[in-house]
Amino acid sequence: MGDLSPGEALLDHAQDEIAVVTADGTFTYVNAAVEAILGFEPADLVGETVFSYVHPDDAPRVRRKFDRTVRSDAYDETTVTYRHRTSDGSWVWFESRLSNLTADAYDGYVVSSRDITERVLAEETRDAAAARLHTIASVSGDVLWLFAGDWSEALFVNGAVEQIYGIAPERLYRDSVAFLDTVHPDDLAGVIDGMERLTDGESVDIEYRVNPDENFTRWVWVQATPIVEDGVVTRIAGFSRDVTDRRRREQHLVVMDNLLRHTLRNDLNVILGTAERIATAFPEAATLTEQIRATGTRLLQSAAKERQIIELLVNRRFGERIAVGDAVERAVERARTRHPNGDIEYVAGPDDRSAAIPSPITAAVTELIENGVIHCDDRRPAVDVRVRSGGDGSVAIEIVDGAAPLPDVEVNVLTGSHEFGRDPVRHSGGLGVWLVYWCVELANGAVAVENAGSDGNRIEITVPTDADESTVNPGGPTADPNGSSASSNGGGPNGCANTGRADRTSE
């Protein structure tokens, strides 16, 4: 083509490939950008046809668009995306623009092409991720949803909403707040309050009843989080999980607990009263009636302990956290009040207020302290409680007593060896050890037991901590199952001289 004209020299500085092609697609001019984009010298392409460099899968579509544009009688312009071959035989994605205005100087049509490979690959990655997410959402039993920050639009809802809430996703896309029609009337105010809190930027964790077609017998657990951009809640994401079965189990536990506890307590009180009258009327039967009274008292204590366990398992607030020092001090105070004959020592360390642990640990520590006081032969039984760092963001609470060593069956319960703990013959009948185990398990902790000598135990509870003091509840209500309901049972007899280690499994 000879020396470059000023216009051609200018085109050679363009970042996009600029080409001129004839009506049959033959290159008559290509600027220098083709070398950086495709690896060809411009002269390599001049005289070649465009379509021989287009991916075979894309060539028919590109040719149809090209022919339709250049043959149009009226002005026409088109943009086409396709794969273009490079000098090494690989492919790049091109976005080419073409109009039917001819370039008189070159007797052809100007085509401007841009490399959009990175954009296409990013879109493919995003589309693949979206497809995977859609697949996961389609098979999830939970309702996955995304709403606009003001609840004006449902951006995404999967099909599980129809089974759980009794409403089709299509209806929510038409009316984003139609799901409120599926909420039990008694729970509606709480749900609306949760929606308002989300719009204000607060995360929400609630449970409520849904599905009028099933008489609102379904319970859902909802966790939702606002998505904030530049200080504004733009979207709200969350999930709803059907927890009806769990709610029913909790209800069954509570009902059976009430029936068993009240019946057992009432009947045992009758038995204890009768034994007292027999002892008065027949002094010679004092030994037998004392056995009746002792056994009845232990059963009453077991009923009270069973109540603590039920409260622990059904109380949804067991995730509340308390400073480890406060938890231990509460446990020590309760044990001292119930067992004034015990010598219970705890010296708080400088860091005991900076780490937070789940509040049920208070009940576990109380139980282990009382266990060490009750099951001993000393007139003034000693129990030492210590707190130290457990490493890896955890804290260790150590309870050392002078009582007889724990039986293996109870050690296995405390440390989580359930196969032995549930053995039908060599099982642990002590609800106290199960209470400790479940408190620690709910706290994601662990229990270790060592024999501290011929007489004594060293029991260590290790739990993860939260060093953020803002999460600590220093004095508010907690999910501690060893609170008010436990304070009435006395935790066992004051003193231990007539209570041997063999009796502990029946408490």
UniProtKB/TrEMBL annotation:
<keyword id="KW-0418">Kinase</keyword>
<dbReference type="InterPro" id="IPR003594">
    <property type="entry name" value="HATPase_dom"/>
</dbReference>
<feature type="region of interest" description="Disordered">
    <location>
        <begin position="463"/>
        <end position="507"/>
    </location>
</feature>
<dbReference type="InterPro" id="IPR035965">
    <property type="entry name" value="PAS-like_dom_sf"/>
</dbReference>
<dbReference type="InterPro" id="IPR013656">
    <property type="entry name" value="PAS_4"/>
</dbReference>
<dbReference type="Pfam" id="PF02518">
    <property type="entry name" value="HATPase_c"/>
</dbReference>
<protein>
    <recommendedName>
        <fullName>histidine kinase</fullName>
        <ecNumber>2.7.13.3</ecNumber>
    </recommendedName>
</protein>
<feature type="domain" description="PAC">
    <location>
        <begin position="204"/>
        <end position="255"/>
    </location>
</feature>
<dbReference type="Pfam" id="PF08447">
    <property type="entry name" value="PAS_3"/>
</dbReference>
<feature type="domain" description="PAS">
    <location>
        <begin position="155"/>
        <end position="202"/>
    </location>
</feature>
<dbReference type="Pfam" id="PF08448">
    <property type="entry name" value="PAS_4"/>
</dbReference>
<keyword id="KW-0597">Phosphoprotein</keyword>
<keyword id="KW-0808">Transferase</keyword>
<dbReference type="InterPro" id="IPR001610">
    <property type="entry name" value="PAC"/>
</dbReference>
<dbReference type="InterPro" id="IPR036890">
    <property type="entry name" value="HATPase_C_sf"/>
</dbReference>
<dbReference type="InterPro" id="IPR052162">
    <property type="entry name" value="Sensor_kinase/Photoreceptor"/>
</dbReference>
<dbReference type="GO" id="GO:0004673">
    <property type="term" value="F:protein histidine kinase activity"/>
</dbReference>
<dbReference type="InterPro" id="IPR000700">
    <property type="entry name" value="PAS-assoc_C"/>
</dbReference>
<feature type="domain" description="PAS">
    <location>
        <begin position="10"/>
        <end position="73"/>
    </location>
</feature>
<dbReference type="InterPro" id="IPR013655">
    <property type="entry name" value="PAS_fold_3"/>
</dbReference>
<dbReference type="InterPro" id="IPR000014">
    <property type="entry name" value="PAS"/>
</dbReference>
